[in-house]
Amino acid sequence: MGNDIFVRAILDNWFYYGAIYAGLLCLYLFLYRKIYWGILDPFLITVVNLTGGAFCVYFLYSDQTLKPIYGWSFLGTEIALFLGMTVAAYIPVIKFGGHTSKLEIPTRGISEFDLFVFVVCTAYVIVEAVNLKTVGVVLLNSEQNHVSAYEGHGIVRAFLVSYRSLVIMTLYYKILYLKKRLNLFELFICFVLLLDLATSGSKSGIVVFFVTYFLITYPMVAQGRMSTIKISWPLMVVLFSFPVGIVMISVGADPSSAIQQVGLRLMSSGDIFLLGYYDDVMDSIQESSFLKYAFYPGWGTILKNLGFEITPPEPIGVDVFAYYSGRRTSGANGRYNYLAYHFFGLWGGIIYALIIGLLLGYLRSIYKNLNPINMNYYSFLFIVVLISCSTRLVDDLLLFGNTSFWALLFLTVSYVVAKILYMVLQVITGSKSYA
């Protein structure tokens, strides 16, 4: 089964399959309505991806090419994930931050947080300069996109994506929680950020500003301590029309064709099932160690650079695509259902999905109940990074490992550097300590 057969079948029966997809989307949105927090919650995108996966599996079933064991595995892992996230909401959470409602903010001098912001922003500028020298402006490269341009420069991309996110989170924290204005250097960083995202070649890059704002403020909004931005229906229509407009501009499609292309992209987002739920494809997958697959991202790279002979795991999505094309330049996202069956079989995969659901649900419960205004800024940003990456446990385990590891590592390194600089500053000036 290839993507071309899938596309032809969908186009030949557009209204039928469109209705099936719409029905599945409504079902998933209804089932998870008490779990996702709003339109800007990254988990809502995961719910949409879950719908795409279910649609692809349904397509295989309707085409009578779905082996029963794969169908039961998919259904079992979907139920287990939902059950895990639902049960996690009833588990007593560890509360961070206590009940204090006042954050002590220094009124004069340079605080440790000021130095932390400087370290993060300076590192970002340096990384951006290295990125421009090694990769260049992706938007001006007609032969590559924002993913393929970094082949051979993965470490540069890890630094750039991590520090880009950290800068946005840190500046939001300063404005929203410390109630402090940005200085000239930080305003310059905002300008660099806008240029960076505008020229990155990523059509959804600008959304990171809105998603990060939502995540930073959500604990306070959920507890009624901060008001949220109301999104009007006209604005929602504009947001949902944005992908269609991008397609119209980029390929010169008319509105009807653009809507169709966006719909096809959503329906085929579970392409790893569409292409990979076959015995011969499963047998072609190289990696057999789940521990290596789960923990190589980040730690494996460091150990390899230290001289250890560690062969990185081949992404399972790349193996699936290579089976059909013979090329190993791209691949589908390794959805948790597919990884569950490959590594653990039918029943073990269901237990794995249940654990993922419990972990993800419990982490979200902790985040919803924490008190940011009485937490150390490092602790709060640590949890924000973790919650922003956590949905990738469902979408792609390798992506979760890479994004969370590097972002948390650079956050910690920047924090330690800021602490050292602040201690040195205290010794020099003899000033009072406050973080």
From TrEMBL:
Chain segments annotated as transmembrane: 14-31, 43-61, 73-94, 115-135, 155-175, 182-198, 204-221, 233-253, 339-363, 375-393, 405-425
Keywords: Membrane, Transmembrane, Transmembrane helix
Keyword Transmembrane helix carried by entry: yes
Protein name: Oligosaccharide repeat unit polymerase
Natural source organism: Dyadobacter fermentans
Lineage: Bacteria, Pseudomonadati, Bacteroidota, Cytophagia, Cytophagales
